[in-house]
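User: quick one, fold this
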Amino acid sequence: MHPPLTQRQAIVASLRQLFAFYLLFIAIFFSGRALLFALYYDRIADAGVNHWFSFLLGLQMDTIVTCIILALPVLLLFTVPRMISSQVRTFVRLYLLVFLLTALFIENATFPFFAEFDVRPNDIFLNYLDYPKEVFGNIWATYKLKLLVATVMMAVAGYLFWTLTRDTFKVVFEIKWPFRLLMLLPLVAVLFIGIRSSFSHRAANISLAVYTDSHVVNEITKNSLYSIGYAYYSQKKHGVVMSKYGKMPLDEAYGRVSRQLRIPVGNMEDPFLRTQKTHFPAAKPKNLVIFLQESLGAQFVGALGGEKGVTPNIDRLANDSLFFDHLYSNGTRSVRGIAGSVSGFLPVPGKGVVKRNKSQEGFFTVASLLKPYGYRSSFIYGGASNFDNMRGWFYGNGFDVLIDQPKFKNPAFAGIWGVCDEDLVVRANEEFAKWHAEGKPFVSVLFSTTNHTPFEFPGGRIDLIPGKPKNSVENAIKFADYAIGKLIDDAKREGYYDDTVFMILADHNVRTYGDDLIPVPKYRIMGMILGGGIKPQRVAKRSTQPDVLATALDAVGIDLTYPVLGKSIFEDPEKEMVLMQFHDMYALRNGDKLAVVQPDTPPLTFDLSAEDHLTPAAHDPELERDTTAFIHVINDLYQKKLFKAAPGSAE
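Assistant:
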C-alpha cells in the first residue's frame, strides 16, 4: 500500500499511465515499420525519395490508431463512480490486452502479407477471412514458423501485460469524481486532435501516407491496423465515394471513355451495346472455351522473353495461336480477371462485380450472350466455387452447369485449394467430348488452382526446374503449363479442337509489386487464342482482357451484339489503351504516357520507359481527366445495371 496521494499527484500519475500505454502501442507500430524499412531498404533507397519522412508520417498514422484505442478507456476511467472501479479497471485491462494482442498479431502478419502482395493488410486481408478453411490451411502449410513465433510473442506479451498491470489505473480512482470529470474535457480534446490529426477542414486519412511516387515507401508509411479498419469501413460502403476521385458530369465522362475505347455510346439504357460483325463467318458457329490461369505472369513465359523452361507447352502453342505479346491485366485479383475475361468488364471501384449485389443476375457474360444460339454453358473449377462468390455469380448470369471440387470423383490429387489442374482438364475434356458427340455447341469457363501458395501438385508429371524446390511458383506454373498442353492435345484427340476457339489467359500476375506507384511490369500476363481455323499471329499491340474476349468472340464466327469494353484486334488493330486498377488507384496508359488517379490526391502523369517503369512527367490534364472518366463510367454502369446482354439474350 502506498501512502495516500494528493490530488495533484494522482492526476500526474494517471496521466503518466495513459501516456505509457500510448508509448507501448507506438513502440509496437514503430518496431514493425522499422523492420519493414530494414527488409526493403534496397528498394526504398533506389526510389530516390525522402524515405526518412516515412517515420514522421508513420508516427502520425500510429497516433491516430492509438488515440482511437485509448478513447473508450479514457471515457470509462474518468466518468464512472469509484464504487465500480474494480469492474471498470478489469474491463479496461482486458480491452487493452485484446488490442495489444491484436496489434502484435497484425504486425506479425504484415510481413508475410507484404511479401506476398507488396502492401500492408487491406481489403484483400479481409476478403480472405471469408474463406477460413482455405486460408488457414494455406497459412498452416506455408507459414508454420512465422505462426509459431507470433503465438509465442503474443503469449509472453499477454502474460507480462496482465502481471504488470495488476494495479494499473487504481490511482485514477484516487482522484475525486468532480476532478475526473473536469479532466475528461482536455483529455477528450487531446484524443480528438490525435484522431483527427489535422487542423484543416478535412480529417487526415490513409491518403496521408501517399506522399511519394514510391509505392513501397507509401505502404511502409501506413499503419496496418488503420489499413484494415479503413478497408472494412470502405467495404461496408462498397468503397465508393466517387467524389474522392474528382467530380465529373456523366455526359462528359461517357464521351471521354467512348473516345478512349473507340466504341460509340448508343442508347443510355445500354451505353456500349453494339452489333459486331464477325471477320470469320462460319456456317457452323464454333465452341468457346475460356481457360483462365491463376497468376500466370509474363515473366515466367519463355515466348514472352521470360524465364526459359517454365512453360514449354505455352511456348510450343505460341507458334499455333494468336499470341499476345503485350497483354496486361486490368487488376490484381481473380475477381477482376474473371470480370474482364468472361464479361469484358473493367474494374469497378470497391469490390469486384463477382462479389457485388447488383451484378448477381442480369450482368453480361459469354453464357448469356451465346445462350440464344443454342450454346450449353458451364463453369468448371477444381476448388470450392463459393470462394469469391463465384458459384452465385456464374449461376445468376447465364451459366447452366457448374462443376466444382465436390463433383470430382477420385481425383488424382487434391490440395488446400482443390483438385489439381490435371484433374480439371481431364474432367473438362470428358464433358466437351460428350457435348461434341451430341452436336450441341458449348461455351465453358475453366479456372485453374495449382499456381497458388502453397503450390501443391502431384509428382511424376513434369521435370522439376533445377535449383527450385518442388513446391515453388516456377514448378507450379510448369504444372499448370502441362495441364494447358494436355487440354489441347486431348481436344485434338477427341476431335473437337477444330470446332472450338480456345482462349487461354491469366487472371493477373503472381505478385503485383514494385517500387513504382503503379508497378506496370507486373500487369503483363500471358494470353493466346487458338483452335480450328485460327491463323498463327503475334499480336504486338498492347491489349487487355476485354480485348482478348472480343477477339475470341470474333473467331466464333457469328455476328454478335454485346457491350464488351474491348475490341477485337481484327476490328481495331490501332487501339492500345490500357486501364489498370491497383488497390484504390487507377492508371490509364496511352502510348508511353500514364496518368494515375487516387482518392483524395491530385492526379499524376508519368512517362514510361521501355521496361514500363515510371518517371514523373508534366501533368497531362486530358489524360488525367480521361482516367477519372473511366472510374465514373464503370461505377455508373454497375450502379444502374447498364452492363447487360441484349434484350432477350439471357433466358
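User: anything notable?
Assistant: The longest strand covers residues 537-544.
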